[in-house]
Amino acid sequence: MKKVFTVVALLTSMALFAQTGEKNFIDKNYIEVTGKSEMEFTPDKIYIQVLLNEKDSKNKNAISEQERQMLQKLQSLGIDTKKDVMIKDLASNLKNGFLSKDVLLSKQYQIIVHDGKTAGQVFLALEEIGLSNANIEKLESSKIEEYRQEVKIKAIKAAKEKAQLLTEAIGQNAGKALFIQEQNVFARPVYANTVMYEAKARGAADAADLNFENLKVEATVVCRFEIL
């Protein structure tokens, strides 16, 4: 019985403290504002997709020879083929001929370069060895997380400035933040359906240095500040 009494007494004490303590922020006078921020940046990770097909004609290069020539060309451009070149897919198809059945291989490669000039040089190099089945898959940035954090901070600061501007208009001030909610932090990479490059359709001068649109990251936050 003694133990029960102690627990009840403790609960009663906590309830009294809650009643006499500071009011919940919902009961305070506050201003709610939305802060937004966005940032544009140049992509430094350009993903090039290359498809190699094994030809059944004897006067065509086999897929192994295509690989050898491609890797040799990429190395001559200063691309780290162990780090920035990888096989994404390997497939084989059975082709029924009149007198024989041949198995044709195909390999899909992904090449990562870090600027538009190198990307253009890659397409020209692929054309030189007869590889035209290539396209830009997507564009990204290696600093995307850093940019996300930066726009969040700017969005919150924008919300504070907006709250202060509005409260000053009525002779008051925006105090401490009572509530902060992240609504949206959005970064969109550009994919192949929006960025395609045909090396044959352009001259060597254009292909030597590709210019891409800047990528964008944006953030939206909802904040409530106490009105003083």
SSE topology:
Layout: H1 2-20, E1 30-41, E2 45-53, H2 63-76, E3 85-96, E4 101-113, H3 116-128, E5 134-140, H4 144-168, E6 174-187, E7 190-191, H5 204-207, E8 215-227
Antiparallel strand pairs: 1-8, 2-4, 2-5, 3-4, 5-7, 6-8
Q: Can you characterise this structure?
A:
The chain is built from five helices and eight strands; from the N terminus they run H-E-E-H-E-E-H-E-H-E-E-H-E. The chain has helices spanning 2-20, 63-76, 116-128, 144-168, 204-207; strands at residues 30-41, 45-53, 85-96, 101-113, 134-140, 174-187, 190-191, 215-227. A five-stranded antiparallel sheet has the order 3-4-2-5-7. Strand 3 (85-96) and strand 4 (101-113) form a beta hairpin. The longest helix is centred in the C-terminal third of the chain and has 25 residues, at 144-168. The chain is rod-shaped.
In brief:
33% of the residues lie in helices and 36% in strands. By secondary structure, the chain is an alpha+beta fold.
Taking the sheet with the most strands, its summary is: 5 strands, antiparallel
How far is the N terminus from the C terminus?
49 Å
Taking all residues together, what is the mean pLDDT? Answer: 75
What does the radius of gyration come to?
30 Å
What is the helix/strand order?
HEEHEEHEHEEHE
Helix-residue proportion: 25-40%
- Order the strands across the largest sheet as they lie in space: 3-4-2-5-7
Task: Using the alpha-carbon principal axes, give the shape.
Answer: rod-shaped
Number of strands: 8
Class of secondary structure makeup: alpha+beta
